[in-house]
């Protein structure tokens, strides 16, 4: 469903540094992919480019989503097509109530797809159910989007949005960071509920622990803007044990902190 | 040309002609009316060389041949969406004259008197002369005003019903000049909530309003003000506000529409521990200008004042904010704040914002700030990444920006009116109408 071929990208204002340097990735329906990699290797950049954030320039390569050129689509078109990014740093939107935002989003997507909109009462019921599952307290639904939410509450809120919008391709950028152990389970449950033969999920994480709960079909190591290694779930265990040293070496990048076993 | 000639704009002969035509029918002392008109003619309209009018060109106003207010047919249905619901008493003025059929001041609670200017001005000659006569538009108002309300609340009485004053200008003559004068006096310990609604239903008009709010010791007056104009309408307003010891005055102004809208406030905190709250939002678009000019005077110790104004500047819109805080030598322990935030939604919009402090006491907390910014791109992206199109996302964020002022309107229906008017103005706002 998602095919990334030889993707090169840089920040628009900084013509010098390429961040993605020939990235290939294919996600088929039903698969869960984990992307791991050192800080600054380009994981969030990849996620933003997939969701259509301004400020990046793709200099080479292509991204197709269900046969369409994803890079040609506006962010809202991507959302309607079923792409969802759970942000590493969710944005606060003062003055806009969380539940109102979610309902507007859901109905916008439905409208674009030519599906009937959801009325207020039905929506509230559905929202309450999902909120309970992902552990978002009801007062957070009434508050402004993410405003004053704790780090963990923001992450749960992202998962709530995902549960409501039911994307085809969900990209979770470090949704596990900053979560307590219970929240980690909750988030993982949320993702697992979404797992289905026609959905793809990309989980960006630094920690093997999340992958105990969300068992990936494929694990990739992203270093220096490229996928340098791919494997099955055992790769995550190996990385946890040995660090990124080998992977960095393979990418021709010097390890900032040589791993012990390297 | 002499200096004075540069600093005043000669009113066109039409003003004098109109006065000569109408003076026989003006209520109150003919001599007082004539002297007010003379004062107006002497003062002339201010030019852009006068600091307070730097950004506002009154030449078109000076050159107009103003016409007399004419009777117009306005029904309650025309006011649909602007009538407050619940426990309300209202006076409706159409083209500056009381419309008894649309008004409802039956069953006034005891301690509250609501009269029209016309009823009072014969008996109280000073009614039209009780505020600043050095302002040309005020002198003009004193010469012509026939409409308006005189409201009094007795000491210690809390009034439950909300008083709504509706001023409708209707007709197809944008040179029609209506003058309205209101006075609201709360005796010691009284409490009142009111709403001022200004609606231009026709092509446009020139509205010139002067308000005098007198809030005695321990009293509290809260006022919502909603102004709806048209592409051709011009509205000038001056509010003189006096706040006594431990008293409170709060007003929130929402304006949408009008070729030129200017709201001037002069607020005096005259007794210790007085509290003043002035809020507002303005949304000018192509060819419109909205001025907010405020002078807050702290004349006694321990008072607090807050000015909170937010502007949304749409393509071709021009906003002016000039707010001054004056703290007298005796006004120790003053807390005075002023914030003016502006959202520029277009590169061809203009905002001139000038906060000013003049402080003669040494133990005070004063702050003022003005910001001019654009919509937060990160926030926009976040909304869009959830499927909301760009236009709607912009409308949502803009609406949220102004919402902080809207929620300060004390009456839920006023908030409703304000939200509808704001959304009606924003591209993509129609999709958010179910919000209000
Ligand atoms: N707007 C920007 N301007 C300049 N450099 C940027 C910008 N965004 C990202 N970068 C740089 O691009 C590189 C990749 O950043 P990215 O956020 O994609 O890393 P990451 O893999 O998600 O890291 P982490 O694990 O810390 O989240 C970093 O070196 C970062 O500093
Ligand atoms: Mg990142």
**Mean pLDDT score of chain A:** 91
Task: Note the total helix count of chain B.
Answer: 9
Assign a percent range to the helix content of chain A: 25-40%
Gyration radius of chain A, to the nearest Å? 18 Å
**3D shape of chain A:** globular
- Principal-axis shape of chain B equals globular
Structural class by secondary-structure content of chain B: alpha/beta
Bound molecules: adenosine-5'-triphosphate, magnesium ion
Gyration radius from CA atoms of chain B, angstroms: 21 Å
The total number of structural domains of chain A is 1
In CATH's first tier, which class of chain A applies? Answer: Alpha Beta
Describe the structure.
Chain A has one domain: P-loop containing nucleotide triphosphate hydrolases (Rossmann fold, 3-Layer(aba) Sandwich), CATH 3.40.50.300. Chain A is 39% helix and 27% strand. Chain A contains ten helices and twelve strands. In chain A, the strands form three sheets. Chain A has a six-stranded mixed β-sheet with strand order 6-9-10-3-11-12, sandwiched between helices. In chain A, helix 4 crosses helix 6. Chain B is 20% helix and 39% strand. The interface between A and B is medium-sized, with 32 and 24 residues. The site of magnesium ion has 5 residues of chain A, from helix 1.
List the helices and strands and how they pair.
The complex is a heterodimer of chains A (262) and B (436).
Chain A: E1 2-11, E2 18-27, E3 32-36, H1 43-51, E4 56-65, E5 68-69, H2 75-81, E6 83-86, E7 93-97, H3 98-113, H4 120-134, H5 138-142, E8 144-145, H6 151-165, E9 169-173, H7 181-194, E10 200-204, H8 208-213, E11 218-223, E12 226-231, H9 233-242, H10 245-250
Helix pairs in contact in A: 2-3, 4-6, 6-7
Chain B: H1 3-7, E1 8-9, H2 13-22, H3 30-43, E2 45-46, H4 59-63, E3 88-94, E4 97-98, E5 112-116, H5 117-121, H6 136-144, E6 149-153, E7 162-169, E8 177-186, E9 191-200, E10 206-215, E11 220-228, E12 234-243, E13 248-256, E14 260-269, E15 275-282, E16 289-298, E17 304-313, E18 318-327, E19 334-344, E20 350-359, E21 364-373, H7 377-385, H8 390-406, H9 412-425
Helix pairs in contact in B: 3-6, 7-8, 8-9
